[in-house]
Specification:
single chain; alpha/beta; 15 helices
Length: about 300
Protein backbone atom coordinates (compact mmCIF):
# COMPACT_ATOMS: atom_id res chain seq x y z
CA UNK A 1 0.00 0.00 0.00
CA UNK A 2 1.51 3.37 -0.94
CA UNK A 3 1.30 6.51 1.20
CA UNK A 4 -1.79 7.95 -0.51
CA UNK A 5 -3.70 4.63 -0.25
CA UNK A 6 -2.79 4.34 3.38
CA UNK A 7 -4.03 7.86 4.15
CA UNK A 8 -7.35 7.31 2.41
CA UNK A 9 -7.88 3.93 4.13
CA UNK A 10 -7.40 5.23 7.68
CA UNK A 11 -10.63 5.89 9.55
CA UNK A 12 -10.33 8.66 12.08
CA UNK A 13 -11.00 7.85 15.73
CA UNK A 14 -13.86 9.25 17.81
CA UNK A 15 -13.44 10.94 21.17
CA UNK A 16 -14.58 9.31 24.39
CA UNK A 17 -14.43 10.28 28.02
CA UNK A 18 -11.52 8.80 29.95
CA UNK A 19 -11.02 9.75 33.61
CA UNK A 20 -12.92 12.95 32.83
CA UNK A 21 -10.69 13.77 29.84
CA UNK A 22 -11.55 13.64 26.15
CA UNK A 23 -9.38 10.87 24.69
CA UNK A 24 -8.87 8.52 21.75
CA UNK A 25 -7.86 4.83 21.95
CA UNK A 26 -4.18 5.21 21.01
CA UNK A 27 -3.58 7.06 24.30
CA UNK A 28 -5.59 4.84 26.62
CA UNK A 29 -5.21 1.26 25.33
CA UNK A 30 -1.92 0.80 27.15
CA UNK A 31 -3.16 2.54 30.29
CA UNK A 32 -2.19 -0.06 32.92
CA UNK A 33 1.42 -0.01 31.70
CA UNK A 34 1.45 3.78 31.53
CA UNK A 35 0.18 4.16 35.09
CA UNK A 36 2.64 1.55 36.38
CA UNK A 37 5.58 3.06 34.51
CA UNK A 38 8.69 3.02 36.70
CA UNK A 39 10.40 6.38 36.43
CA UNK A 40 14.04 6.77 37.45
CA UNK A 41 15.29 9.72 39.47
CA UNK A 42 17.25 11.16 36.53
CA UNK A 43 14.39 10.88 34.00
CA UNK A 44 13.28 14.18 32.48
CA UNK A 45 9.61 14.44 31.67
CA UNK A 46 8.71 16.86 28.85
CA UNK A 47 5.07 17.72 29.47
CA UNK A 48 2.88 19.88 27.25
CA UNK A 49 -0.62 20.39 25.98
CA UNK A 50 -0.51 19.22 22.32
CA UNK A 51 1.02 21.77 19.92
CA UNK A 52 2.72 23.93 22.57
CA UNK A 53 6.32 23.34 21.44
CA UNK A 54 6.99 19.76 22.54
CA UNK A 55 9.15 18.83 19.55
CA UNK A 56 11.17 22.01 19.81
CA UNK A 57 12.04 21.62 23.48
CA UNK A 58 12.57 17.86 23.02
CA UNK A 59 15.16 18.52 20.34
CA UNK A 60 16.87 21.19 22.45
CA UNK A 61 17.15 18.77 25.38
CA UNK A 62 18.26 15.97 23.10
CA UNK A 63 21.11 18.12 21.76
CA UNK A 64 22.07 19.46 25.19
CA UNK A 65 22.52 15.94 26.50
CA UNK A 66 23.43 13.79 23.55
CA UNK A 67 24.98 15.77 20.69
CA UNK A 68 28.36 14.64 22.03
CA UNK A 69 27.39 11.05 21.13
CA UNK A 70 28.14 11.98 17.52
CA UNK A 71 26.11 12.77 14.38
CA UNK A 72 24.83 9.18 13.81
CA UNK A 73 22.20 9.48 16.56
CA UNK A 74 20.95 12.82 15.17
CA UNK A 75 20.72 11.65 11.57
CA UNK A 76 19.36 8.11 11.91
CA UNK A 77 16.65 8.24 14.58
CA UNK A 78 13.48 10.36 14.39
CA UNK A 79 12.90 12.47 17.48
CA UNK A 80 9.84 10.39 18.51
CA UNK A 81 12.10 7.34 18.96
CA UNK A 82 14.70 9.27 20.95
CA UNK A 83 12.07 10.96 23.13
CA UNK A 84 9.29 8.38 23.52
CA UNK A 85 5.68 9.51 23.80
CA UNK A 86 4.83 7.73 27.04
CA UNK A 87 1.08 7.13 26.59
CA UNK A 88 1.32 6.50 22.83
CA UNK A 89 0.35 3.22 21.18
CA UNK A 90 0.67 3.57 17.43
CA UNK A 91 0.44 0.84 14.75
CA UNK A 92 3.80 -0.51 13.68
CA UNK A 93 5.75 0.99 16.59
CA UNK A 94 6.63 -0.27 20.06
CA UNK A 95 4.49 1.42 22.72
CA UNK A 96 5.79 4.58 24.38
CA UNK A 97 6.35 2.61 27.58
CA UNK A 98 8.37 -0.07 25.75
CA UNK A 99 10.46 2.58 24.01
CA UNK A 100 11.10 4.39 27.29
CA UNK A 101 11.96 1.14 29.10
CA UNK A 102 14.50 0.32 26.39
CA UNK A 103 16.13 3.75 26.18
CA UNK A 104 19.85 3.22 26.66
CA UNK A 105 20.51 6.86 27.56
CA UNK A 106 20.89 8.59 30.86
CA UNK A 107 18.97 10.71 31.44
CA UNK A 108 15.96 9.38 29.61
CA UNK A 109 13.91 12.11 27.93
CA UNK A 110 10.22 11.21 27.95
CA UNK A 111 7.34 13.10 26.36
CA UNK A 112 3.77 13.28 27.66
CA UNK A 113 0.62 15.28 26.94
CA UNK A 114 -1.15 13.91 30.01
CA UNK A 115 -2.75 16.48 32.30
CA UNK A 116 -0.92 16.70 35.62
CA UNK A 117 -3.41 14.54 37.53
CA UNK A 118 -2.85 11.59 35.15
CA UNK A 119 0.97 11.61 35.17
CA UNK A 120 2.20 8.23 36.49
CA UNK A 121 2.95 8.64 40.18
CA UNK A 122 6.49 7.27 39.98
CA UNK A 123 7.63 10.54 38.34
CA UNK A 124 6.60 12.44 41.47
CA UNK A 125 7.87 9.76 43.85
CA UNK A 126 11.28 9.82 42.16
CA UNK A 127 11.30 13.62 42.21
CA UNK A 128 11.97 13.66 38.45
CA UNK A 129 12.61 16.93 36.68
CA UNK A 130 9.69 18.10 34.57
CA UNK A 131 10.01 20.59 31.72
CA UNK A 132 6.58 22.01 30.94
CA UNK A 133 5.97 24.20 27.88
CA UNK A 134 2.81 26.28 27.61
CA UNK A 135 1.60 28.26 24.60
CA UNK A 136 -1.05 30.96 24.49
CA UNK A 137 -4.52 29.51 23.97
CA UNK A 138 -5.28 31.24 20.67
CA UNK A 139 -2.17 30.10 18.80
CA UNK A 140 -2.41 26.72 20.50
CA UNK A 141 -5.97 26.28 19.21
CA UNK A 142 -4.95 27.25 15.66
CA UNK A 143 -1.97 24.92 15.62
CA UNK A 144 -4.08 22.05 17.00
CA UNK A 145 -6.73 22.65 14.33
CA UNK A 146 -4.20 22.35 11.49
CA UNK A 147 -2.60 19.31 13.13
CA UNK A 148 -5.94 17.51 13.30
CA UNK A 149 -6.60 18.35 9.66
CA UNK A 150 -3.36 16.68 8.56
CA UNK A 151 -3.12 13.82 11.05
CA UNK A 152 -5.54 11.02 10.11
CA UNK A 153 -4.88 9.44 13.51
CA UNK A 154 -6.75 12.31 15.16
CA UNK A 155 -10.50 13.03 15.19
CA UNK A 156 -11.80 15.11 12.30
CA UNK A 157 -11.71 18.82 13.23
CA UNK A 158 -14.54 19.45 10.71
CA UNK A 159 -13.90 23.18 10.24
CA UNK A 160 -12.26 26.05 12.11
CA UNK A 161 -15.33 27.37 13.90
CA UNK A 162 -16.45 23.88 15.01
CA UNK A 163 -12.95 23.08 16.20
CA UNK A 164 -12.53 26.38 18.06
CA UNK A 165 -15.75 25.66 19.93
CA UNK A 166 -14.42 22.19 20.76
CA UNK A 167 -11.23 23.75 22.11
CA UNK A 168 -13.21 26.18 24.27
CA UNK A 169 -15.43 23.37 25.54
CA UNK A 170 -12.36 21.29 26.48
CA UNK A 171 -13.36 18.50 24.11
CA UNK A 172 -10.07 18.20 22.18
CA UNK A 173 -7.86 15.16 22.84
CA UNK A 174 -6.11 15.56 26.24
CA UNK A 175 -8.95 17.70 27.51
CA UNK A 176 -9.20 21.38 28.33
CA UNK A 177 -6.17 23.57 27.58
CA UNK A 178 -7.22 25.75 30.54
CA UNK A 179 -6.98 22.97 33.13
CA UNK A 180 -3.78 21.61 31.57
CA UNK A 181 -1.74 24.83 31.78
CA UNK A 182 -3.18 25.77 35.18
CA UNK A 183 -2.73 22.25 36.57
CA UNK A 184 1.04 22.22 36.02
CA UNK A 185 1.27 25.86 37.14
CA UNK A 186 -0.33 24.94 40.46
CA UNK A 187 1.77 21.81 40.81
CA UNK A 188 4.86 23.98 40.48
CA UNK A 189 3.89 25.80 43.69
CA UNK A 190 4.45 22.62 45.71
CA UNK A 191 6.81 20.59 43.50
CA UNK A 192 9.97 22.57 42.80
CA UNK A 193 11.36 20.31 40.06
CA UNK A 194 9.11 21.78 37.36
CA UNK A 195 10.60 24.24 34.90
CA UNK A 196 7.62 26.09 33.42
CA UNK A 197 8.39 27.58 30.00
CA UNK A 198 6.43 29.59 27.46
CA UNK A 199 6.47 29.06 23.69
CA UNK A 200 6.34 32.86 23.25
CA UNK A 201 9.55 33.30 25.29
CA UNK A 202 11.24 30.67 23.15
CA UNK A 203 10.31 32.51 19.97
CA UNK A 204 11.37 35.84 21.46
CA UNK A 205 14.81 34.69 22.59
CA UNK A 206 15.65 31.02 22.18
CA UNK A 207 19.23 31.49 23.45
CA UNK A 208 18.01 32.96 26.74
CA UNK A 209 15.55 30.07 27.20
CA UNK A 210 18.27 27.49 26.48
CA UNK A 211 20.40 29.19 29.13
CA UNK A 212 17.54 29.02 31.66
CA UNK A 213 17.01 25.37 30.81
CA UNK A 214 20.69 24.66 31.46
CA UNK A 215 20.48 26.35 34.88
CA UNK A 216 17.43 24.28 35.79
CA UNK A 217 19.11 21.07 34.65
CA UNK A 218 22.43 21.92 36.30
CA UNK A 219 24.28 21.79 32.97
CA UNK A 220 27.36 23.91 32.41
CA UNK A 221 27.10 23.82 28.62
CA UNK A 222 29.59 26.34 27.15
CA UNK A 223 28.13 29.36 25.42
CA UNK A 224 29.46 28.31 21.98
CA UNK A 225 27.65 24.98 22.31
CA UNK A 226 24.45 26.69 23.46
CA UNK A 227 24.63 29.00 20.46
CA UNK A 228 25.13 26.03 18.14
CA UNK A 229 22.07 24.34 19.65
CA UNK A 230 19.99 27.52 19.39
CA UNK A 231 20.86 27.73 15.70
CA UNK A 232 20.34 24.00 15.07
CA UNK A 233 16.85 24.10 16.59
CA UNK A 234 15.64 27.10 14.61
CA UNK A 235 12.26 26.55 12.96
CA UNK A 236 13.69 26.59 9.41
CA UNK A 237 16.38 24.07 10.29
CA UNK A 238 13.99 21.71 12.08
CA UNK A 239 11.49 21.97 9.23
CA UNK A 240 14.11 20.71 6.78
CA UNK A 241 15.40 18.01 9.12
CA UNK A 242 13.66 14.66 8.41
CA UNK A 243 14.45 13.51 11.94
CA UNK A 244 12.51 16.39 13.52
CA UNK A 245 9.85 17.35 10.97
CA UNK A 246 7.67 14.21 11.32
CA UNK A 247 7.76 13.55 7.57
CA UNK A 248 8.46 9.90 8.42
CA UNK A 249 4.99 9.41 9.99
CA UNK A 250 2.63 7.72 7.49
CA UNK A 251 -0.71 8.98 8.93
CA UNK A 252 0.30 12.62 8.55
CA UNK A 253 -0.73 14.17 5.26
CA UNK A 254 1.76 16.93 4.50
CA UNK A 255 -0.26 17.93 1.46
CA UNK A 256 -2.92 19.17 3.89
CA UNK A 257 -0.49 20.93 6.25
CA UNK A 258 3.12 20.38 7.36
CA UNK A 259 3.86 19.41 10.96
CA UNK A 260 6.32 22.32 11.16
CA UNK A 261 3.71 24.77 9.95
CA UNK A 262 4.57 28.39 10.87
CA UNK A 263 6.18 28.40 14.30
CA UNK A 264 4.97 31.92 15.05
CA UNK A 265 3.31 33.92 17.80
CA UNK A 266 0.14 35.67 16.63
CA UNK A 267 -0.93 33.47 13.72
CA UNK A 268 -4.34 33.34 15.47
CA UNK A 269 -5.01 36.77 13.92
CA UNK A 270 -5.21 35.05 10.53
CA UNK A 271 -7.91 32.68 11.79
CA UNK A 272 -10.16 34.30 14.42
CA UNK A 273 -12.99 36.49 13.19
CA UNK A 274 -13.71 39.62 15.26
CA UNK A 275 -16.78 37.89 16.75
CA UNK A 276 -14.85 34.70 17.57
CA UNK A 277 -12.15 36.76 19.23
CA UNK A 278 -14.61 38.65 21.43
CA UNK A 279 -16.39 35.48 22.42
CA UNK A 280 -13.10 33.72 23.11
CA UNK A 281 -11.78 36.59 25.28
CA UNK A 282 -14.95 36.64 27.36
CA UNK A 283 -14.87 32.87 27.88
CA UNK A 284 -11.11 32.96 28.60
CA UNK A 285 -11.58 35.56 31.34
CA UNK A 286 -14.02 33.26 33.11
CA UNK A 287 -11.93 30.11 32.73
CA UNK A 288 -8.69 31.78 33.88
CA UNK A 289 -10.09 34.02 36.60
CA UNK A 290 -8.52 32.06 39.47
CA UNK A 291 -4.96 31.80 38.23
CA UNK A 292 -1.91 34.07 38.28
CA UNK A 293 -0.77 32.51 35.00
CA UNK A 294 -0.34 35.09 32.21
CA UNK A 295 0.20 34.58 28.49
CA UNK A 296 1.29 36.79 25.63
CA UNK A 297 -0.68 36.48 22.40
CA UNK A 298 1.68 38.74 20.46
CA UNK A 299 5.29 39.82 20.69
S1 LIG B 1 2.95 17.85 19.19
O1 LIG B 1 2.26 17.15 18.05
O2 LIG B 1 2.01 18.13 20.28
O3 LIG B 1 4.14 17.17 19.65
O4 LIG B 1 3.35 19.27 18.55
P1 LIG B 1 4.36 20.31 19.21
O5 LIG B 1 5.73 19.96 18.84
O6 LIG B 1 4.04 20.50 20.64
O7 LIG B 1 3.93 21.68 18.51
C1 LIG B 1 4.07 21.91 17.14
C2 LIG B 1 4.08 23.41 16.96
O8 LIG B 1 5.37 23.92 17.38
C3 LIG B 1 5.97 24.60 16.28
N1 LIG B 1 7.43 24.42 16.33
C4 LIG B 1 8.29 25.45 16.33
N2 LIG B 1 8.07 26.77 16.35
C5 LIG B 1 9.17 27.58 16.32
N3 LIG B 1 10.45 27.11 16.30
C6 LIG B 1 10.70 25.79 16.28
N4 LIG B 1 11.94 25.33 16.25
C7 LIG B 1 9.59 24.89 16.31
N5 LIG B 1 9.45 23.53 16.32
C8 LIG B 1 8.13 23.28 16.32
C9 LIG B 1 5.35 23.91 15.06
O9 LIG B 1 5.57 24.64 13.89
C10 LIG B 1 3.90 23.86 15.51
O10 LIG B 1 3.29 25.14 15.58
P2 LIG B 1 2.48 25.81 14.36
O11 LIG B 1 1.90 27.07 14.93
O12 LIG B 1 1.42 24.86 13.94
O13 LIG B 1 3.48 26.10 13.31
Amino acid sequence: MDGADLLSSVSRPEYFDFEGISMIPCFTLNWANVQNFQARPDDILIATYPKAGTTWVSYILELLYFSKMGPERQTSLPIYLRVPFLEGLFPGLPTGVELADKLPTSPRLIKTHLPVQLVPKSFWEQNCRVVYVARNAKDNAVSYFHFDRMNMGQPDPVDWSTDLQKFMDGRKVFGPWYDHVCGYWEKKQTYSNIHYMFFEDMVEDTGREVEHLCSFLGLSTPIEERERITKGTHFNTMKLNKMTNYSTVPVMDFKVSPFMRKGKVGDWKNHFTVAQNEQFDEHYKQKMKNTTLQFRTEL
